[in-house]
Specification:
Oligomer: single chain
Strand content: 5-15%
Largest sheet: 3 strands, antiparallel
Shape: elongated
Number of helices: 12
Strand order of the largest sheet: 1-2-3
CATH topology of the largest domain: hpI Integrase, Chain A
CATH superfamily of the largest domain: Intergrase catalytic core
Number of domains: 2
Order of helices and strands: HHHHHHHEEEHHHHH
CATH class of the largest domain: Mainly Alpha
Helix content: 40-55%
Structural class: mainly alpha
Radius of gyration: 24 Å
Amino acid sequence: MAENGIVPAIVGAVMPAQVASEDELVRRWIGRFQSANTRRAYQIDWRAFRAFTDVPLRALTVGGVQDFGASLVGLRPATAVRRMAALRSLLTMGHRWGYLMVNVGAAYQMPAVKDTLAERIMSEEQVARLLWQMDAPLRRGPYVLRDAALVRLLYSAGLRISEACGLHWRDLTERDEAGQITVLGKGGKTRVILLPAPMWARLSRLRGNAGRDDPVFRSRNGAGLHRSQVDVVVKTAMRRAKLPAAASAHWLRHAHASHALDRGCPVHVVQTTLGHASLTTTTRYSHARPGDSSARYLVA
């Protein structure tokens, strides 16, 4: 003990371990995330790491982290970055909870990733073509109205697939000759989105005799659509509209943000509608589709 009675701190000391095993650490780490999609993705990332090496986390070195990063060459850049971000997050939690003496992931430098957002934004003409074919007179079947309303709502409200799947009729409220929907979004955050009258009318026609607790978009057995079913609906519609093969439901969310900003919607309104935690995320759409560029003033 020092002369002044103060016990000096031990450099590099960690708190007593709050987890007893690697399995418990992984389970508690994944359980921290509220989003089911994030938990599912990180479980996949953890299995990929375990398929690469059987070295216990307590024996992992900085070199081992770097070797795992090098093994991800060939994956889509965003997937590779997510894999490494997941591993670093796990190692950080392991150190914070006292299971790991050293956080060997802290020294790993995450690679820069090209922002490809501009490649995933459809033009208004492409969206119009998609929506037109959803209403084409030749379309037949019991789910024509459901699928048309689903695809249009994904664009009109800028919803994520999980948010559309989670909608129940109690989440819809009439307002100002149209209506609004209450959405449970990413991170367990709730937001309210006002809908234009034509979109509200489409949803109203879809309801039939459904009760308040019934899902808005029902499958054949009456349960809510699964995200994989929504993906099939959207992918089929995209293909019929002759849109890029890579186009997905999330492209409609990108299109919503970009087109709203192009039409003069304040960026903070777009942020609130889409549920972005940061305004920086929303302004990416302005950078992805700038209104002007100095390159246009040059003669090439």
